[in-house]
Amino acid sequence: MKLLGFDHHAAHDLEALARAGSAHELRTVPKDPLIGLAQEIFPRDIWDLSVAYYDRANAAMRSAWARRVGTLLDRVHEGYPFEALILPSDTYFYVRSLVDWARDRGVATIVVQKETTVSPFVMATHAKAVQDAFPFACDVMTVCSERLKEFWVRAGTDPARIVVTGQPRFDLYRQPERWQSLESLGVPPAGDVRTILFLAYHRQVRTLVGVGFGDARPDEASYVADDVYWDTLRRETEQVLVDLVATGRYRVVVKPHPQQAPEEMAALFPNVPAALRERIVFLSGSHDARQLIVNADVVVGFQTTALYESIAAKKKTVCTFWSDEVEQFEDILIPFHQSAPGALTIARSPQQLRDAVEDTSEVTPEEEEARRRVWEEHLGPLDGGASRRVLDVVERTVDNRRAAFAPRRRRPHPFEARLHNTAAYKVALTGLEHIKRTRLLWRLHHALAPKVESRLRSLDCENRLIHAVFASR
To answer: Vertex 439, ends 438 and 445: CA angle to 5°?
Structure first.
């Protein structure tokens, strides 16, 4: 079976499916070329407020995008006749046309939902926003847990089209043979000190109050102003970690969020004394958090579901939870602070954070059971078999589609002959540079050059996408 996956920050899930389904072929579409093409059609206001995608005034743009996507996917399908399209979500407005294309051609569409838990705020408000803006459109969706299934049922999805499987990328926690050492990940040896993994996060409050699941956003989140920040919590957390490093018993590995801006990452841990810099290791946001978690002695974070992963990996897990902003928005945050006693440590002050990190007491059976209940509620089953269960869903969906669809005959076309030739556009652009000498030709240059440059950018995105699919075997 040939599968095509869309990699929108879903590389670990797709990798897990490819590993578990060696009998199948899975190739991937990278997000950047596809987004680049969409940005040439849709204006900035739709990217900022994607519910405008379905406005009547934008019908021409939707049609233009559907034609471009159709042409592009036809080219891919001719060279790689995939039977299933796997998406991490179908709420991104620019993938809706991909789903329409697949439906018209009998290609199964499966959402392997990359999101995990939801806060009570998201459950109560965001589900309705998703239902109104981008209701579920694919054939079937796999989710990690019953809690997440409840969210999608509230969003208007037929429960029969939602299957709880666990999360493919979390299979790694039950596959120790796949664990890598920190040294292999580019982290210097720790020596005889303990490793604290700090999961850094966005500075802006509104990025962490339930805005997720693609581009549909609840109106209730709009009251969080753009200039409200977690600065106090971040600054005091960083100071505690620096003080712990100064004791000589710890080193800190800093893992930013994958979508954290470079300027935010550059602002982490300012003014660290020179003598301590070697024991504060800064990684890129692209590092695999799972591999870092299994190598850590203590995991410290705030609003990241990786804290639930840390609990499942049986690590000392501390959630920082103080400051005026935390108190103000407590009701709309991921409910770590409502977990059963012993599941994880909630540090409600800098001193409590330090005490929690330095506490090396053994986990009691009661605490172990509390941990299991917490991570199962939010992450679903972590038994190493989620990838296989997802593939079973994919296989059944493809079989059902195949049985119900009569494919239209198409003339085969070799992939190599379908690549657009950008050379002619480059020649045209070069030629336009030589006709600026007169006023008339200068005007001609300004009229034509932007169109040629735009087409050249489009062709570059298309060719990058095509090449990526055929190179990802």
So the answer is: 85
Residue 98 tokens read as 């991909």
Q: Which residues contact 452 (CB under 8 A, 6 or more apart)?
A: 425, 428, 429, 432
What is the chain's length?
473
Spatial strand order of the sheet with 25-30 comes to 25-30, 2-7, 84-87, 108-112, 140-143, 162-164
CA gyration radius for the chain?
Answer: 25
Q: What is the pLDDT of residues 256-294, one digit of tens each?
A: 988 777 777 778 888 888 889 899 999 988 899 999 999
The pLDDT assigned to 378 comes to 94
> First and final CA of the chain: distance in angstroms?
13
Contact predicate 26/3, CB 8 Å: yes
Please name which of 9, 17, 14, 12 lies closest in space to residue 28, comparing C-alpha atoms: 14
Amino acid symbol at 235? R
| Alpha carbons 450 and 454: distance in angstroms, whole number | 6
CA neighbor of 288 nearest in space, from 178, 188, 421: 178
